[in-house]
Amino acid sequence: MATLTLYFRFPLSLRMAEEMLAARGIVVSHEAIRQWALKFGQEFANQIRRRLPRTGDKWHLDEVVIKIAGVKHWLWRAVDQTGMVLDVLVQSRRDKRAAKRLLHKLLKRQCRAPRVMVTDKLPSYGAAKREVMPGVEHRQHKGLNNRAENSHQPTRRRERQMKRFKSARQAQRFLSAHDQIANLFHLRRDHVTATEHRAARARAFEMWADISGVATAA
């Protein structure tokens, strides 16, 4: 759907997406866009996850605080060495138990342990790793984990557009779908020519068109 292409691809609010479509002569309400995103977003994300190349073997883990209905929650996110998002988990705690939940979810989803796990100096990571993945190398240093910390920036932009998440369930559902769709368009610009970048972008749009059923422009 062209509507969902705009909504998932760019940090737009529902009403901004509605107005952009109206400018193109497409009349659709913001509530309809929200319902379509709920209905199709995770399905699209699951297909993208299956079709993208295998993720890297170096996991960068980080957690960031988010306010939901005035209550502090923690968004835990894992990315690989290229910045591809592996998974996210919204939790109310920032302790060993929460870190273990994230590691178990990652192992279930990735079907393998990483070669290296990189985190900040939060003790919960080390305690959880010793129980869940004792043989994995663990590097704890704030300066090594910029890749994971930078991965939170799109979420912050989304928070502002959505005027914060309404519930932990909504945040988990939205980010689980959005991060995987964003992976499809995670196109590196370093060490590639402009021609190579455009070709990679064209392939990404072709895959999105195939998954979403939206024809690409001629």
UniProtKB/TrEMBL annotation:
<feature type="compositionally biased region" description="Basic residues">
    <location>
        <begin position="154"/>
        <end position="166"/>
    </location>
</feature>
<dbReference type="InterPro" id="IPR047930">
    <property type="entry name" value="Transpos_IS6"/>
</dbReference>
<dbReference type="GO" id="GO:0003677">
    <property type="term" value="F:DNA binding"/>
</dbReference>
<dbReference type="InterPro" id="IPR052183">
    <property type="entry name" value="IS_Transposase"/>
</dbReference>
<dbReference type="GO" id="GO:0032196">
    <property type="term" value="P:transposition"/>
</dbReference>
<keyword id="KW-0238">DNA-binding</keyword>
<keyword id="KW-0815">Transposition</keyword>
<dbReference type="InterPro" id="IPR032874">
    <property type="entry name" value="DDE_dom"/>
</dbReference>
<keyword id="KW-0233">DNA recombination</keyword>
<feature type="domain" description="DDE">
    <location>
        <begin position="57"/>
        <end position="185"/>
    </location>
</feature>
<dbReference type="GO" id="GO:0006310">
    <property type="term" value="P:DNA recombination"/>
</dbReference>
<protein>
    <submittedName>
        <fullName>Putative transposase</fullName>
    </submittedName>
</protein>
<dbReference type="Pfam" id="PF13610">
    <property type="entry name" value="DDE_Tnp_IS240"/>
</dbReference>
<feature type="region of interest" description="Disordered">
    <location>
        <begin position="135"/>
        <end position="166"/>
    </location>
</feature>
